[in-house]
Amino acid sequence: MSFARLARLCLKEWRETLRDRRTIVTLVLMPLLVYPLLSILLQRFLLTSLTAAKDPVYLIGLQDDQHLSLLQQYLDVGGDLLQEADHQAADLSRDAGAGLDAFDQQARVQWFSVLDLEQAVRSGQIDLGIGVVAEDEKLSVEGWETAARYRLLYRQESALSRAAFEHVRDRIRAVNDHQLQQQAQAMGVRLRLPAAIESRPLAGADAAVSLTTLIPLILILMTITGAVYPAIDLTAGERERGTLETLMAAPVPRLGLLAAKYVAVLTVALLTAVANLLAMTVTLLSSGLSELVFGQQGLSALVIVQVLALLVLFAAFFSAILLALTSFARSFKEAQAYLIPIMLLALAPGLLSLTPGLEFNAWLAVTPLVNIVLLARDVFEGTVDPSLAVLAVFSTLLYAVAAIAVAARIFGTDALLYGSEGRWSDLLSRPVHERPVASLPAAMFCIALLFPGSVLVAGYLSQQEQLTMGHRLLLNALATILLFAAVPLAAARLQRVRLRMGFRMHRAGWLVFLAAGIWGLSLWPLAHEIFLLNRWIGLTSLSGEQIELVSQMLQQLRELSPLLLLLALAVVPAVCEEALFRGYLFAALERATSGGRAIWVSALLFGLFHVVVGSPASPERFLPSAFLGLMLGWLAWHSGSVLPGMLLHFLHNGLLLMLAYYRDELMERGWGLQQQQHLPASWLIAAVIAVAAGGVMLFFVGRPKRPTIL
Amino acid sequence: MIQVHELTKRFFADGREILAVDRLSFEIQPGEVYGLLGPNGAGKTTSIRMIVGLLRPDGGYAEVAGCRTVEAPDEVKAKIGMVSATDGLYPWLTVREMLMFFADLYGVPFRAAEAKLRGLSELLQLNDLLGRRCLRLSTGQKQRVTLARALMHDPPVMLLDEPTRGLDVIGTHVVFDYIGHLREEGKSVIVSTHRLDEAERLCDRFGLLHQGRLLHEGTLAQLQETTGCRSLIDMFTRLLRSDPRSTPLPVPG
User: Which residues on A lie below 8 Å from B20 (Cβ)?
Assistant: First the structure.
């Protein structure tokens, strides 16, 4: 299907979705009315709590009005004395934390005349009750001579009540202390205290962080809100309206229809998210709360761009999940029933991000949804690990592809079109007739399954310290065979794909193999120079420690048999990776799109795989791997077979392995290579000539008119 | 143009197997209108869905213009115009947008689609409706749009499943004219209906389905001769009173 046709399909879905009033309600009214209202409520809440801290108002009840003026005087004088002491402390230590005490200085007191103090305090009518102790009682207790004795009543469980109590107590104490000092001075006595206390309140370092961890949760809610309705309407709604049968009767690939629907759902999700983001930005900026949420840097343009990028990623993922789920539904009601648990489930990772100290690692980076939320958290905290970010983004996109593949498998099937007349088991049943190559959704689903599988296997093996290098290599080879060959093979069997056609196991002429052999031996210098390009463009993630680890690993490899190395790291990857990328996947891509696109897409995926399927993930591997993928893809397309590529891949890997294996010997003979240095120009010229010679040979051999099945 | 051979479909409902279509076989030539007749639940709609490739047959095959539905579903779909009893329209698209969308689905170039749209608008009196959104159309207007939609890619084969369901006299008359137009255009047409009086006026040949089996096939004259009944209604009444499984009537030709 051409892009122009896909665009026209999208146009129809956009029209159908964006003209629907219910979509507009979700898209426009939600953020314009509900979200700002919620924001205002949140803002009010935050403002209220801040105001309470910054500028509290204490409601104080007094039993005897005659003491009002005296108490007011004590509090004023006491307040001045405390402020004076506070300034002296600030002079000693100019710390921002010292200023926090000033909050209480600005407290306002509202006085009330209350008869039943206890009841008024208990019921919360007042924060503090001040009773006057009887004249005879006051003299008999401590023997001090006082003008008045007050009893302060407050609620222990109320922060405001306690603060009011402390407010009054501290001021009266200050007045008393001051009075005592003056009397002592007048008597010429120097007072001696057993111990003095100095306190300094400080602001917590994670004050802003705690709020930024809430942002991923808001993102989830924002995206879901927008995407839910169109996802249901374009799938289950289509069936309910009776348009699905007509649509399925048209000669259009299901994947094309689904892709257009996906674009429409994604568009609405993004528009909703942008509208919400706009509302959030305006609210934060207008209320001055941006610093509180985003820390001292506030809500900068960079933060907005980062939020937007995460929204795009999240929307891409969640729209696909929604579409897959709603594709199962036969009606609106059924779709809603499916979505409610998923929406609740989606909140769980959001809550997970609130777990303090949760480390974002490779395992969590390939865990759906959790990876986006934790990546969002790290972005806001400025602690993003680029390798994990690449892993999370790539895996998320692959999961989205897998979800669309699932949706394409079930959308418009008998079971959905005709309800009870079809069976759900039909979805898993093998087709009656053989098919020449795998469908694109099936191939992409395979890739999406393999990807986290490979990451998990690599992660698991790297943690098994008790394994010897030999065992590790064999297990790795076994995993490669299982993931890259056995899984696609099983998928092909399930789909009744003709194995020779589906994996492009066609015969090729000896000249093609010769050309592939030449390329296999001559491409590595070019790949090496492309690897060095990373440094030029600033793409280096390997630390000195990691490079040292790689050197140690190479040293351990040298202790093993070269045949074992060739088997595990050259033969197995060459056969299995080619079977998947230039066989199963390439055939599906070529049939669904074109040869050119099959080359580019398979090379891109090949490059990305080599980035993430490593421990640690290394973006440096993308360019050389994608370059090799392009050459292998072109060879596969030109020869119509996967077999010459297997030879090329084997020779390329094998030669590099042997160069590393015999590095010391080669160094002794003056043929040594340094991993981080350019190759001699003569080597590069020779490589270019060899590659060109292989290309010329392939050009003269030409493309086979029809693939010959072995 | 259409060849149906031993087409069979089983469904499972409430834990038991139902034979919805039982070894159905017939052929239709270009310019012929074939009435697939039967009471509700006879298997008419299931047969049509198998012919267009929406349902996978459990046995036999359907071939349209030399292509089998299971082997080349897209080629078959491209050659068929389908008017289903459950046809819906996209409520938020205008009539023009919807018809052009379906033309595009079938790969009709834009200019050719516009020309086709003009012709069909004249034929089905859609000119005043083209700019109107589908949700604002009446039942009769919706049916006219549905008929136009099925012809936008000018298919050689038309499958009409209960095309007059829910229509008034005027709406039914429009459908009759439409089928007459299809015959003139040389298209092979299958009309599935349980309105036997209508079928008598519309179709060249008939297939009488009952409980998934084709019990009678032929022209009206052939059926009258075989059954001894004057009208299709009489034939069906007689069929339903007898036990069709034990005493199948001979199928001519």
Answer: 421
Query: Could you tell me if B232 lies within 8 Å of chain A, comparing CB atoms?
Result: no
Q: What is the pLDDT of residue B248?
A: 44
pLDDT band at A581 (very low <50, low <70, confident <90, very high): very high
Give me the amino acid identity at A233: D
Q: Where are the domains of chain B?
A: 1-79+159-166+188-253
Cβ-Cβ contacts under 8 Å, B97 against chain A: 12, 15
A703's CB contacts (< 8 A; 6+ apart) are: A637, A638, A639, A640
* Count of beta carbons in the 10 Å neighbourhood of residue A147: 9
Distance from CA of B93 to the nearest CA of A (A): 6
Q: Do B149 and A246 touch (CB under 8 A)?
A: yes
The verdict on whether omega for the bond into residue A488 sits within 30 degrees of 0, i.e. cis, is no
Which residues on neighbouring strands pair with residue B208, listed in sequence order? Answer: B37, B216
The C-alpha atoms of residue A585 and residue A244 are separated, in whole angstroms, by 29
Is the pLDDT confidence value at B85 over 80?
A: no
Higher pLDDT, A683 or A198: A683
pLDDT band, very low/low/confident/very high, at A575 (cuts 50, 70, 90) = very high
pLDDT digits (tens, 9 = 90+) for A480-539: 898 888 888 988 888 888 888 889 888 888 888 999 999 999 888 888 888 887 767 666
Tens digits of per-residue pLDDT, A38-92? 656 665 565 555 555 556 788 899 887 788 888 888 888 888 888 887 777 655 5
- In this structure, the dihedral spanned by the alpha carbons of residues B122, B124, B127 and B131, taken in order and rounded to 10 degrees, is -140
**Per-residue CA distances from A369 to A318, A325, A447, A683 (Å):** 9, 16, 19, 48
Q: Given a cut of 70, is residue A28 above it in pLDDT?
A: no
Q: Within 13 Å of residue A259, how many CA atoms lie on the same side as its CB?
A: 17
Beta strand pairing status for B67-68 and B59-64?
antiparallel
Check if B9 contacts A (Cβ < 8 Å). Answer: no
Name the residue of chain B whose CA is nearest to A420's CA.
Answer: B13
Q: Per DSSP, what are the bridge partners of residue B8?
A: B59
Q: How distant is the Cα of B26 from the closest Cα of chain A, in angstroms?
A: 22
- 8 Å CB contact of A250 and B105: yes
B1-79+159-166+188-253: CATH number: 3.40.50.300
- Selecting from A245, A253, A414 the residue whose C-beta is nearest the C-beta of B86 gives A245
Distance CA B43, CA A234 (A): 30
Beta-bridged to residue B159, according to DSSP, are B82, B190
Domains in chain A, CATH or no CATH each: 1-53+208-361 (no CATH), 55-187 (3.40.190.10), 502-710 (no CATH)
User: Tell me, what amino acid is at A596?
Assistant: G
Pick A418 or A150 by higher pLDDT: A150
Q: For the stretch A364-388, what's the b/e string if a residue is b when 16 or more beta carbons lie within 10 angstroms of its beta carbon?
A: bbbbbbbbbbbbbbbbbeeebbebb
**Predicted-complex ipTM score:** 0.86
User: In this complex, is the C-beta atom of A425 within 8 Å of any C-beta atom belonging to chain B?
Assistant: no
**pLDDT tens readout for residues A613-648:** 665 556 777 888 999 999 999 999 999 899 999 999
The pLDDT, as a whole number, for residue A707 is: 46
